[in-house]
Design goal:
The structure is a homodimer of 316-residue chains. With 316 residues, chain A is an alpha+beta fold. Helix content of chain A is 23%, strand content 30%. Chain A contains 8 helices and 16 strands. In chain A, strands 1, 2, 3, 4, 5, 6 and 7 form a 7-stranded mixed sheet that branches. In chain A, strands 11, 12, 13, 14, 15 and 16 form a 6-stranded mixed sheet that branches. In chain A, a hairpin with a 2-residue loop joins strand 2 and strand 3. In chain A, helix 7 packs across helix 8. Chains A and B meet through helix 5, helix 6 and strand 14 of A and helix 5, helix 6 and strand 14 of B.
Amino acid sequence: VTLFDGARSSHTPELAFSAAGLHRAGELRDRAGTQKELMARPDARAIIICADTPVLGFANGELLAHHDIDLATGLGDIVEAAFLGLDGERPVFGLHLAPSSHEALKASSALKLIDMRSIAIQGLFTPDTVNDIGTAKALFSWHARHRFCSNCGAPTTPASAGWKRVCEACSSEHFPRTDPVAIMLAVDGDRCLLGRAPRFPATMFSCLAGFMEPGETFADAVRREIKEEAGVDVGRVRFLDCQPWPFPSSLMIGCLAEATSTTITLDDELADARWFTRDEVRLILAGQHPDGITCPPRMAIANHIMRAFAEGVSGS
Amino acid sequence: VTLFDGARSSHTPELAFSAAGLHRAGELRDRAGTQKELMARPDARAIIICADTPVLGFANGELLAHHDIDLATGLGDIVEAAFLGLDGERPVFGLHLAPSSHEALKASSALKLIDMRSIAIQGLFTPDTVNDIGTAKALFSWHARHRFCSNCGAPTTPASAGWKRVCEACSSEHFPRTDPVAIMLAVDGDRCLLGRAPRFPATMFSCLAGFMEPGETFADAVRREIKEEAGVDVGRVRFLDCQPWPFPSSLMIGCLAEATSTTITLDDELADARWFTRDEVRLILAGQHPDGITCPPRMAIANHIMRAFAEGVSGS
């Protein structure tokens, strides 16, 4: 089993947001006039986000994520624009339309608003396009929460073609957040630990997960989270794969871990946690568990970590 | 060669900031009165940071990082306090003293101010203590730059015993940043690509590195950075190890990558970049390169990635 590989292992055929997307062409972001010049090109396209939701169009009866930029800029007030990169020679932008446009866009028969999660679960676009839409969503969600300078409180303005914000009052530069989250499966021989968050459907179980903190390695974060949430101790930790996760702007770091204790003590972040055998996990993944236990869809790294375990990867 | 292991591979005996530090006891952070009650305990200790610099004491002629909390709180105005965790039963806090205290602290014969980098390079404390000092430094550097709400511009106040800031005006919660940075060595058979940043000493070369962006996997970030900075194309990417890096608050993600082109085209982030053979890298690591080429110290992950390559790990 190849545990990590730029070309993706056999565990991750459908891991969403992980395909390499556009050539980002970062060297163009700070070139004076780039944004204006590239947006004026007749072949320019735009991915549109409004109220955290991708705005899709139609071409020949098929859903379409890339709009003609002239059409896109006419749909509503543009809160933010970002140069996402080049598709061959073609510039692709993200446009963030004002939330006030949301109802009008929803009412348009030429458009369809589908939430990001559904797009990824249903695989409505090629993996690279799903990644590009996710990148635009993550970027605009960061912009929306960073209109003011955290250093001095003054308003900030976007710069670098949408890839940073600057404060003219104190000269601070602010860059998009990418928050690492450890997500992991503690393994005790032939069993693994799955938990149910209070917000989950009653039958759904998944890997435990939590935001990494300053000063932590992947392994330390994995150990802390499993101990905090389930009271289980962990020894060796093994990195499996990562996944950008635009809800709102995380980087999931998937690990398997060797449990060194088995008694479960829940904190209030979990509604339940249990040990499941490898056979049970296979049944859960196949949608055939006798108690109707389900798990996250194939597009999520939790599914892929569970699949790796089901296929025999261990925590040590 | 074990490429990743919670217990650290043989490549990483001295990787700084990576030892598991204190038991963080996160469940205590939000318990009412915790901070006050634990700080009042006679066995409580404090790690002190002033103007980004650790403030050390002496005990029996030895440098000491953990001060008696009564002594520590009397040294100057406390800008921020954070509950770092438990050392056995003993609570350990971080204290951020006002930069205005800096000169007075420096003048005290009972104290010694040593910058974080020197502490790590010289291995002045045990690895877990170095990690705790680094965590305090990263946390306070984040607090210092987040006194205002990025969402609405109002002042924020610390909460959760120093692990978040809240905005009373708009109810936003803000958590410490941990910025993932891809750091990598492109490998072409028996050669690897090292670069020299303009700020480096004239003879020093290191791995290339850059902040990860929303929507990127480790592999995508590695490919983008190597292409942007040196014009070299990369195929497979292999994760080696990670390192928390408190300058100011990064998470280094160390990778080896298979080069698929070899012509170097520099952008302005690098002053130079060259291919070095495995033998040359061994000489650099040993401080015996005929042209006097040097590299980052053993405490930095760049050194460990170079060491892995020197010992035969490849990019594919």
